[in-house]
Amino acid sequence: MELGERLIEYFKWFHKNPELSYEEYRTTDKIREILTKAGVEILPCKLETGLVAVVRGKQEGPVQALRCDIDALPITEETGLSYASCQSGKMHACGHDFHIVSGIGCALGLQERREELAGTVKIIFQPGEESSLGALKILETDVMDDVEMIWGIHADPTNEVGMLGIREGYVSAAVDRFVITVDGVGCHGAHPDDGVDPILTAAAIVQALQSVVTRNVNAFQPALLSVTRIEAGNTWNVIPEKAVMEGTVRTMNREDRILFEKRVREIAQNTALAYGAKAAVEWIAGCPATYNDEEMVRKSIRIANQCNMKVVPEESSMGGDDFSFLEEKIPGCYIKVGTGKGQAIHQPGFMVDEGSILPTVIYLKELFLANKIKENG
Questions:
Q1: In angstroms, rounded to a whole number, what is the distance separating the alpha carbons of residues 141 and 150?
Q2: Torsion-angle region of residue 132: left (phi > 0), alpha (psi -120 to 50) or beta?
Q3: Which of 102, 171, 196, 361 could potentially form a cystine with 276 if both were Cys, beta carbons 3.0 to 4.6 Å apart?
Q4: pLDDT 10s digits, 287-305
Q5: Which helix (H) or strand (E) holds 36?
Q6: What is the mean pLDDT of residues 229-243?
Q7: What distance in Å separates the CA atoms of residue 377 and residue 4, rounded to the nearest whole number?
Q8: pTM to 2 decimals?
Q9: What is the pLDDT of residue 372?
């Protein structure tokens, strides 16, 4: 069976057998089985799920890496594919099955061409990306200690097969979460003067929080704040004593990220005080913004041209990716790979065109076979 056919068979297996973050045991075993059979070395790092493969070239060169995330989402699939998920309520709705087989194909291709490979390539099959913190599991090991630069890919249903989104600079946002608990004084709904209404207070906080984007952040800097959940009370005629809200902040600029935490705390606490209530803010920091290194972008575009792939400017996204944690240590480049236009990621009808697999594998293989520390254009 040709490589392309094998990869499609692997892809279908991973799509049929999705596993959620940090539960990717069968996924890990399958990756290990395929790579071990092909003679690809697996590093003995301490990961409960996920693994790291390595291909050591016969020529001197840098140590580089490819990040491939492997977890699925708690979504019920509605694609109608013959190889649809057989795990109830779980689906590869973000293309991580595509990422897995792209990494496998890259490892297999480099293994066959070690004589031409300058340096070392580590293929990181990372767990838990959908948790926004899975990359930290990799950083808890010594895998990244000698890596000099790292690439990441992501399925892109807004572009056709054969197209790559590549651009220098920030391409996805830092992701932070907040939880605000408003404590008032409960009372009968007919006698609000006997209490302190946490719902009214929470509504005022929601309104005031929007002023951070419109009045505190430079209008030319992408940023947003969304309150996504409010919970209070359990019946129609009682004003409760507590209200809880949570939401997310997305920023590209490091200073803006710091500013948002400061202003969310100030606005919540002082608005609550104005209404006679109290507010406590829990700030849960997620991954930083993803930044594409200039030299790596130039190399990525040059190899894309050599592989007859069309390069389009990568769109900025207020979505996040924990790939950025790896970039805090070394230069990185995050590439969007056209997988055929269709339903957006994280949707039950999301699908990857199988025809995108082999071109992506060829591209990644050539990217690493062109290993150099510096690129001159």
A1: 16
A2: left
A3: 196
A4: 999 999 999 999 999 999 9
A5: helix 25-37
A6: 98
A7: 31
A8: 0.91
A9: 55
